[in-house]
Amino acid sequence: MADGAAHDIDSKERATFTAMTEGTAADWAAIAAAGQAHRGEHVDRILSHLKLLDNDYGGFNVDRLEHSLQTATRAHRDGRDEEYVVCALLHDIGDILLPASHAELGAAILKPYISEQNHWMLEKHGIFQGYYFFHHLGLDRDMRDEWRGHPWFEYTAQFCHLYDQNSFDPAYESMPLEAFVPMMRRVMERPVRSIYKKPEAA
User: Fold this and answer.
1) In sequence order, what DSSP letters do the residues of 60-89 get, joined into one string?
2) Which value, to the nearest 10 degrees, does the dihedral of the CA atoms of residues 161, 165, 171, 172 take?
3) What whole-number distance in Å separates Cα of residue 196 and Cα of residue 202?
4) Which CATH architecture has domain 41-187?
5) Among 48, 61, 76, 80, which residue's CB has the most CB atoms within a 10 Å radius?
């Protein structure tokens, strides 16, 4: 098929407006259909970025990907559910893209797919992890106390203590990344909350 013909067929499946004020229901149906054709690819893109942590040590005893795998493996072996394990796997995905606020990136990526409790844990874990090292940098290790009394304070402190702060062991036998991919696909298959999702009927 000639390139021009292929382009013509493709263009018929697109919206026709040049400004959203001109959009019709048919335009938005075409846009929705185009998006549906790529469903699930976001997980592959997230995995591609996670793999960038491989061989990036950042001065630590293990590279950033191994730290992520250790954290997720410890949570999995401790009997945590898949949502929690995926949170553990992606908790530091922002390390090299947003080093000044890494925790917020993992929280933003997973927000549509996880509970508010797990989202809060991801968003705040950087400050809670600081309890173990901030004082060595001249910072306040008790910075997390701003949220003491919050319903999810202990939940987040436990994540850091049980799975995060101790996952820098070169001798630890982590599960391979491939073992977590099906969990990621299940957890991120459909958003549970999103501005683009209709509220479910009561």
Assistant:
1) SSS-HHHHHHHHHHHHHHTT--HHHHHHHH
2) 50
3) 18
4) Orthogonal Bundle (1.10)
5) 76
